[in-house]
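tokens incoming
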């Protein structure tokens, strides 16, 4: 018996699609609230939450990251959509190499704000 786990991209896409569907339904169910509610829920559609784990003895013993961003369209470059984003990211790694006096160990969690741009093609 052989099984395959979904990739991080597949999981993130599924969660994002479910959230967008839910927000569309809420907008449709609550149209009487007005345009302010619609604008708020449309803005939430651009919220992205991603994460992954890795390492497992390949490169590092264990690593993980989580990032939450708000994306907003900036425009297009040669027909490719460009989004800007701001958010928060946490990255952790447990890495060691060498032994004795030359042993290097790094076991930390780094976190803080992020800002950047993405291109979708």
């Amino acid at each position: 018996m052989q099984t395959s786990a979904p990739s991080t991209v597949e999981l993130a896409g599924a969660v994002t699609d479910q959230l967008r569907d839910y927000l569309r339904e809420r907008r449709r169910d609550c149209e009487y609230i007005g345009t302010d509610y619609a604008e708020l829920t449309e803005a939430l559609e651009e919220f992205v939450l991603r994460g992954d784990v890795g390492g497992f003895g390949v490169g590092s013993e264990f690593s993980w990251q989580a990032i939450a961003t708000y994306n907003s369209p900036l425009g297009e470059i040669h027909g490719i959509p460009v989004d800007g984003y701001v958010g928060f990211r946490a990255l952790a790694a447990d890495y060691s190499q060498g032994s004795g006096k030359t042993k290097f160990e790094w076991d930390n969690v780094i976190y803080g704000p992020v800002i950047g741009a993405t291109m979708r093609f």
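note: The longest strand covers residues 60-77.
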